Amino acid sequence: MMRKISRPEATGNLNDKGERACMVEIGKLLTEGKGKRVYATSDPETAIVYFKDEAMAFHGLKRGRILGKGEVNNAVCGHLYEVLQQHGIETHFIRQLDARQSLVRRCEIIPIAVKVRNRVAGSLAKRIGLAIGTKLDSTVVELELKDEYLDNPLINGTHAIAMKLATREELNYIINTACRINDIITEYMSDIGVELVDIKLEFGRFEGRIMLADEISPDTARFWDARTHEPMDIDRFRRDLGNVEQAYQDLLHRIMGDQ
What we know:
The protein contains six helices and 14 strands. Mean pLDDT is about 90; it is low at about 5-20.
């Protein structure tokens, strides 16, 4: 059973506002994670990502709901993907369908998360003993195996190659692209008074090409107010800092130019 979403597009019939519309059929649920559901469409090469309000931390030990989070993440993710595409970064993002849903290319996700860190935060503080907020002299890049049964352990490049998760050439491309993405978003955010502390990125294969997949949002990156260093991301939920919904909305307004 499929239901349809109408969305203005370059093909199809004109609606009463003079926009062209096409129909996207939502199929079966493919996968569900902490903050998203992914659905099939009638096109085997595309999928629909639905962003949820549910929040989770500490491997599911802390759960809650951040009102409006799904809409913020969908908007932030779509906007930042468009920024990256303008800089020549290929992504799985095609277009937003509505406030909570986006159409994406249906990639084969590579089971490696790439974390790019500009300051010490989160688990890095526990592992290297530096205080949270310490500015790193050089960017730190970490690889994480996407396997919840193994608690998503850190791995290195030789692990990834030995496990045949990616070839050496693919891994080099992924790491270099992750660093480029970090640089692009760091510069973009600095213009709106936001600092990118760290970011977690995932990549997938599509028609023989490696491209950025998953999401970039306050759920997957640490964004701090550049002046106060107040978090504007999921850390407010993790650390019981309060004003979580407001922080997400404030970040969205800045990104969309509504300051």
